[in-house]
């Protein structure tokens, strides 16, 4: 196995998901290659930091809606005792269904945890570059992901690098920027998640809808274009984040026409 082959199998290798033959080959390469040994070590470090993040179970919004529905049906059932049993059963079935349909951890919370873990790492990028084209090419080759890397240099935000991330069991792209010393993460998760699954406050900016939410002191702006979910995570203010979101949306639309 050579460096390119190892790189393309890095995540399954670190997760122990390669078959025995490939694992043996990867082990042999890592034992003799300093560069790949570093890559593997950084990937393991990232997973460790991520595991240390306190996890959220169900969202507050979901808990609230379940409580409200149960309360309503209990009151309703109390007035009609002969219907009580079947109604309560139906509502519980609804609640179970609702919980099953919604992922336990909201997507945006996963992105915030990844943002925290990445920015705590000494080398947060798998690929360090300030050139949007080079980063896009790296995603195409490394992960078969068609990613639009927006240029925010006009806003005084510099591109730092990129890595392949994992969100909701999907391979996602992660692009890291910095404004001064404040990091900004931009995620793209190629999943057809409905926009209604994005919790938070809905805001309109320059004619488009976004969902904003704060988690663990970070501000997030997310939206779906039907093919993928996009999420920005940072301590920058919402005005700046929405501007970045709008730029990315416009550049993405232009890429799609090419
Ligand atoms: Zn190597």
CATH class of the largest domain: Alpha Beta
- Fourth CATH level, the homologous superfamily of the largest domain: MucB/RseB, C-terminal domain
Lateral strand order in the biggest sheet: 1-2-3-4-8-7-6-5
CATH fold topology of the largest domain: Phosphorylase Kinase, domain 1
Ligand set: zinc ion
Low-confidence stretches: 98-103
CATH architecture field of the largest domain: 2-Layer Sandwich
User: What's the β-strand tally?
Assistant: 8
Q: Tell me, what's the shape?
A: globular
Class from secondary-structure proportions: alpha+beta
Q: Helix share of residues?
A: 40-55%
Main sheet specs? 8 strands, antiparallel
Order of helices and strands: HHHHHHHEHEEEEEEEH
> What oligomeric state do the depicted chains represent?
single chain
Work out the helix count: 9
Distance between the termini: 36 Å
Overall structural domain count: 3
**What value does the Rg take, in angstroms?**
22 Å
Approximately how much beta-strand content do the residues carry?
A: 15-25%
């Amino acid at each position: 196995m050579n460096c390119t082959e190892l790189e393309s199998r890095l995540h399954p290798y670190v997760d122990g998901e390669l078959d025995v033959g490939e694992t043996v080959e990867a082990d042999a390469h890592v034992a003799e290659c300093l560069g790949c040994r570093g890559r593997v070590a950084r990937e393991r470090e990232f997973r460790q930091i991520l595991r240390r993040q306190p996890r959220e179970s169900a969202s507050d919004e979901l808990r609230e809606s379940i409580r409200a529905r149960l309360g309503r049906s209990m009151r309703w059932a109390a007035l009609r005792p002969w219907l009580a049993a079947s109604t309560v059963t139906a509502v519980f079935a609804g609640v179970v269904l609702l919980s099953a349909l919604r992922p336990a951890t909201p997507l945006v919370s996963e992105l915030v945890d990844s943002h925290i873990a990445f920015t705590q790492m000494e080398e947060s990028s798998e690929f360090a570059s300030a050139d949007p084209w080079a980063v896009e090419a790296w995603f195409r080759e490394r992960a078969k992901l068609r990613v639009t890397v927006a240029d925010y240099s006009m806003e005084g935000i510099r591109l730092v690098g990129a890595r392949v991330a994992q969100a909701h069991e999907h391979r996602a792209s992660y692009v890291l920027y910095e404004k001064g010393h404040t990091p900004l993460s931009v995620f793209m998760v190629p999943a057809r998640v409905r926009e209604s699954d994005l919790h938070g406050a809905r805001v309109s900016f320059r004619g488009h809808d976004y969902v904003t939410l704060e988690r663990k002191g970070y501000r997030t702006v997310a939206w779906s274009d039907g093919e993928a979910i996009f999420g920005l995570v940072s301590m920058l203010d919402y005005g700046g984040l929405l501007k970045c979101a709008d730029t990315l949306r416009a550049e993405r639309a232009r890429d799609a026409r090419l």
